[in-house]
Design goal:
The protein is an alpha+beta fold. The protein folds into two domains: 300 residues, Zn peptidases (Aminopeptidase), CATH 3.40.630; 116 residues, Alpha-Beta Plaits (2-Layer Sandwich), CATH 3.30.70. It has twelve helices and 19 strands. Helix 2 packs antiparallel against helix 11, helix 3 packs across helix 5 and helix 9 packs across helix 11.
Length: 421
């Protein structure tokens, strides 16, 4: 972090409009809690986020943001732009929080509050209602304070972060929609705490299925059994030497196949996942797994036309990282120095994976408070004491809008280096 970055942030923090925004955050913690409780009651299962997205559209409109709309992927979007319209085609800063939870349709979502403490219990209350309420806090505080940002801020309550959602909301924003090539930096709001993810844990997920002719366990004995073929392949796959630095993991999360004890199954399938922070290691391990699976059926394919192998990708979270010399990281460190906070940098799998992989400066950041039992029905969130984390986030967001052209140039250079490689 340079002294000039720290001094710029100190000057920014003295502005009257910034103090007004901080004042809004101080006075409206009860409002944030009410918003959080409202959104938790709206189910947002994977691929079923539309009702919660519609709720966000209403909130964005009420807060007075502009260009409020749902995009074709289902992201709820709104802009906070310079008053003079000068930033119409200039770089923008994305601030987002994902709408979806891991819980399937039909899960009871009513939050529970107790008299003993300030905790709120409920599925998705921390991941990611905490981040979503912080997203609204940023919009409301900036509007109340009449801040006039030098660059457009794009607010996004996005879909598809969890599981097989496969970052589809982020993919649309960065690769397909009208904001493609305009996003100079991205801040993804994730749950509780104050840790910051600057390194992306990548993953490859696929379903492998071995097909066979099937038959009766007695009269068709000797026919290739897909469950046995798959089991042998999985045993060989489990013995693959995977690096410990960077740590690379393999998991078989689900196996299916067969109909009865006296039937040779016609198919057997397994869901596999590889994780690593190194994209090359992920690709190499994936190729080795494919070779093992292919070898498991090769001896039988010419003898039994029904024997075949199918490998279907079901998810890819690209690896990547925020460079140590990024202006975004310098801004974060400057903000933390201003507030006398310790900067905790971590590895994680978040919406920031996508911009990381494209060379676009990004980070995922906790929004304060505490939480626990994430991804379980016993999930809880305590927003007590989150005001400092929200001030930190607001100051960081404003600092980043001031250096948007620099960040856009940084992203362009990263993209050029990636193309050369």
């Amino acid at each position: 972090m340079t002294d000039s970055s720290y001094l710029r942030i100190n000057r920014l923090a003295t502005l009257t409009a910034v103090h007004r925004a901080f004042h809004w955050l101080h006075l409206h913690q009860p409002q944030l809690r009410r918003w959080l409780l409202e959104m938790v009651r709206i189910p947002a299962p994977p691929f079923g986020e539309h009702a919660r997205a519609a709720w966000f559209i209403e909130r964005f409109q009420t807060l007075g943001l502009t260009n409020v709309h749902l995009d074709p992927e289902g992201n709820a979007l709104a802009e906070f732009a310079p008053e003079d319209g000068s930033a119409e085609n200039s770089p923008i800063i994305l601030i987002s929080a994902h709408l979806d939870t891991v819980f399937p349709a039909g899960t009871l979502c009513d939050p529970l509050e107790t008299d003993d403490d300030s905790r709120i219990h409920g599925p998705g209350v921390c991941d990611n209602a905490a981040g979503l309420s912080a997203l609204l806090a940023m919009a409301a505080a900036l509007r109340y304070a009449k801040v006039n940002p030098p660059s457009t801020i794009l607010f996004a309550a996005n879909v598809g972060e969890e599981g097989e959602g496969d970052l589809r909301g982020m993919r649309h924003l960065f690769l397909e929609g009208p904001y493609k090539n305009r996003i100079a930096a991205a801040l993804a709001l994730e749950g509780s705490g104050t840790a910051v993810v600057t390194r992306a844990l990548g993953s490859l997920r696929f379903r492998c299925t071995i097909h066979g002719p099937g038959g009766h366990s007695w009269s068709d004995a000797g026919t290739p059994n897909p469950i046995l073929l798959l089991s042998r392949a999985l045993t060989a796959i489990s013995e693959l030497p995977l690096p410990s630095s960077p740590l690379t993991t393999l998991n078989v999360g689900h196996i299916a196949g067969g109909t009865s004890v006296n039937s040779i199954p016609a198919s057997a399938s397994a869901l596999l996942e590889l994780r690593s922070s190194d994209a090359h290691i992920l690709r190499n391990a994936s190729l080795q797994i494919r070779r093992i699976l292919t070898a498991s059926v090769a001896p039988f394919e010419s003898l039994y036309p029904a024997v075949s192998l199918e490998i279907k990708p079901v998810g890819e979270r690209p690896a990547g990282h925020l460079p140590d010399d990024s202006a975004l990281l310098a801004a974060l460190r400057g903000v933390d120095r201003h507030f006398s906070l310790r900067t905790e940098l971590r590895l994680g799998s978040t919406d920031a994976n996508l911009p990381f992989s494209l060379g676009i400066p990004a980070l995922a950041i906790g929004t304060g408070g505490t939480g626990g039992n994430i991804h379980t029905l016993e999930e809880w969130y305590d927003p007590a004491g989150r005001e400092m984390a929200l001030r930190r986030l607001l100051l960081l967001l404003l600092a980043v809008t001031q250096i948007a052209p620099q960040l856009a140039d940084e992203a362009s250079k990263q993209e050029s280096r990636a193309a050369a490689d």
